[in-house]
Amino acid sequence: MRFVLLGFDGKDEGAMDRRMAARPEHMEIMLKFKEAGTLKYSGPLLDDDGKMIGSLMIHEYPSEQALRDDFLANEPYALQGVWETVTIYRHFPAEGRFDTVL
User: Fold this and answer.
1) Angle at the Cα of 101 from the Cα atoms of 98 and 102, rounded to 5 degrees
2) Residue-averaged pLDDT of the chain
3) Domains in the chain, please, with CATH?
4) Banded model confidence at residue 98, pLDDT cuts 50, 70, 90
5) Alpha helices (H) in 7-75, listed in sequence order
6) Which end of the chain is less enclosed by CB atoms within 10 A, N or C?
7) How far are the Cα atoms of 11, 34, 48 from residue 16, in angstroms, in the given order?
8) Distance between CA atoms of 73 and 25, rounded to whole angstroms?
9) Predicted confidence band of residue 95 (pLDDT cuts 50, 70, 90)
10) Closest Cα partner for 11 from 77, 90, 64, 82?
């Protein structure tokens, strides 16, 4: 099953410093999950000025709990207080012809 994860950074004065400090470890672990096949897509969320304010990811796991136990339990942004909030949604990837549904 696919899941969309939205992680929104804190808005306090030290938020960007926490993100940048955790970023090297975050990038390493993202590669691990990409190679394992559970991470399908990821990228930062940006504000109108292009500043990183969070993350959007698409994962494939058998359940939301498996995503939490495997990914979130190891993700530096979650563990080091970069993300203030994390929201997870189930996702169904639309494939094929879109003109019949748009």
Assistant:
1) 80
2) 93
3) 2-91 (3.30.70.1060)
4) low
5) 15-36, 64-67
6) C
7) 9, 25, 16
8) 14
9) confident
10) 82
